[in-house]
Design goal:
The protein is 51% helix and 17% strand. The protein is an alpha+beta fold. The chain has two domains: 20-85; 95-172, 2-Layer Sandwich (Alpha-Beta Plaits), CATH 3.30.70.1350. Strands 1-2-3 form a three-stranded mixed beta sheet. Strand 2 (123-132), helix 5 and strand 3 form a beta-alpha-beta unit. The longest helix has 29 residues, at 23-51. The chain starts with a helix and ends in a 9-residue tail after the last helix. The chain crosses the membrane at residues 28-51, 57-78. Its main location: membrane. Residues 15-86 form the Cation efflux protein transmembrane domain.
Length: 180
């Protein structure tokens, strides 16, 4: 019923390209699968120990293996959550490629204050100032820049501020791209 109500009259997907579950859903799924595998491991280990008591070292080996499994899955989920919390550049989005895409738009002379972060693991956001030459139409440049960004990087939301280019921007420290 929820699917039917959500899809009724709602003909777009808000920029989500590949449906990725959020970190909480993924963590819950991994937890359930981990519990299932651990239960099966304990069951197998208990049968081995029941029928062959001399193999009682199977239990600590099984415990160690599943501890490593839990640690590995926890670290990957933790990494993804920390990326969002620390407002890091999302996976799959290259800062320099975004900058070059914007500079390739006809009329764009400079790009500064470029910020890329993740609202969630599946929702990258962008905010940028683009400086255009006097002969360019701000609206046309804005539309082309938005289209290229959406086509190449699938941002959930973009905020683009269009400014007139001036020669002072070339030497302005605030207008320079970050250094590696």
């Amino acid at each position: 019923m929820g699917l039917a109500l959500h899809q009724t009259g709602h003909g777009h997907n808000h920029g989500a390209q590949g449906e990725q579950p959020n970190a909480s859903v993924r963590a819950a799924f991994v937890h359930v699968v981990g519990d299932l595998l651990q239960s099966l491991g304990v069951l197998v280990a208990s049968y081995i120990i029941f029928f062959k008591p001399e193999y009682k070292y199977v239990d600590p080996i099984c415990t160690f293996l599943f501890s490593a499994l839990v640690l590995g899955t926890t670290l990957t989920i933790l990494r993804d959550v920390l990326l969002v919390l620390m407002e890091g550049t999302p996976k799959g989005v290259d800062f320099n490629a975004v900058r070059e895409t914007l500079l390739a738009v006809r009329g764009v002379e400079a790009v500064h204050s470029l910020h890329i972060w993740a609202l969630t693991a599946a929702q990258p956001l962008l905010s940028v100032h683009i400086a255009i030459n006097a002969a360019s139409s701000a609206q046309e440049v804005l539309e082309e820049a938005s289209s290229r960004l959406q086509g190449a990087f699938h941002f959930h939301s973009t905020t683009i501020q269009v400014e007139s280019y001036s020669e002072e921007m070339r030497d302005c420290r605030e207008c320079q791209p970050p250094r590696d």
